[in-house]
Amino acid sequence: MKQLLLTSRIKSMAKKYAKELFADKRSDFIQPVDGLKNLIIDLQEVNDSLAEKDSYIKYLETIILDYPRLKNLNISKFTTCKRKYDKILEESKLTAKIKYRSADLPSIREERDKLKPVEGVFYEQIVNRMHYKDARLYLAPYMKMLGVQTCVYCNNSEAVYSDGLDEAYYHFDHWLPKDKYPFLCVCFYNLYPCCSNCNGHKLDGKKGSFCLYSKNVPVFDPFVFLIDRSALKNDDAQTLSVLFNARNKVDNDFRNDYNTVFRIEQFYNSPAKKRTCLQLIKLIDKHKGHYLTATDASVPGIADKDELWKEVLGVDENEENIFTDVNKKLKIDTAKDAKLI
Ligand SMILES: [Zn+2]
Predict the structure, then answer these.
(1) How confident is the model at residue 206 (pLDDT cuts 50, 70, 90)?
(2) Domain-by-domain residue ranges, the chain?
(3) Which H/E stretch holds residue 173?
């Protein structure tokens, strides 16, 4: 919904994540490279009828070779990398069924022959062997450090959930889907904290696909919320409407695609959200005069900007990062519209 500026801080986090990923695991943990090597053995030994078997093997060999780089692969290299993998094995073949035995295959052939193969989808086996589920636990502390607590697509819900055991965990979405980009399934830059509503919705293939990280400030914040109170009657929140617009005309198609996929306008026009909006504009109206005319702390009302953020907007003061609080973008945009910030 709003991009994060790709700073050297984020880059060093990605580097550290790549270095730490599964490094502390016990020796009985099957490291991704070993799990993938065993999948190659499965392809060689129990997949006689698989067409283009050599291409599947080459695909896995390439992931093994690239693995150290894939964990924090630069976003600008995603397309070239995808092209390389597509040349080895067509994208449509990734969903083919293959036979496999275990990620932990015995080294002796006779022992392996005793294991009964089962059938599974090729790309899913790659994702399992690369331990995407475990990787989330390594990525979560970095998202916490970055202050990303809400869904990056809607900013309407938290991306952090409790498991009921005092532990909080993140929901992640693969920005580039794992059925087409399995080699990026644990990549730092491909895993976005998101809510259960937005998880699974894809902009893939649509114009202007949303990328969380931006090198450039101009494309930082392509959307803007506007609370339309022109039809407000009798303080009835339901007569308000929340508009979700592209900041610039050029981004209109992007906005339309985005809204179709994530149903932003629909979510932000729910009865509960409209009540939040009414409270927000009332608070802003109440404090606006004081804030704009206050010259020092002796003037009644809110003169201090930090206080404004906390008391009126109910969010932290970091304007660049909207993902620290739910509804933060809506609040900032509304305060800006009122010329409060
Ligand atoms: Zn969401």
Answers:
(1) low
(2) 25-132, 221-341
(3) strand 172-174
